[in-house]
Amino acid sequence: MNKDHKDRGMKKWNGFFMPETIKMWKNLWEDDHKTPRPHLVETKIEEMERLLFEGMATKKLLEITTWTNGFFTSRVGFVTKIDPLKKKIQIQYELRSTIHLDFFSLTNVMVK
Fold this sequence. Notes:
Elements: H1 11-14, H2 19-33, H3 42-58, E1 62-68, E2 71-83, E3 88-92, E4 98-102, E5 106-111
């Protein structure tokens, strides 16, 4: 066998995959891994509200889990503001950056 021969590996197959095909496979993978929005009972919502207000008043570190477009995301930080009219929560990360979360996207709140 010739030792000077270098295999191109996957490079030789990349020409067969059109960008539309790659995008389709990516969308299929995402759709396959999405989870439906969890249904929260009233007591769970009240408990989350209590923890948010308590965490804001006592400056406790909270882990807040949100659901967006079929995927869960957890964030750890301090609640700095709760806007009941806009139904938004402002969280400050440990690195001093802030993010606004929609209250309807919350799925779980835990004291860290």
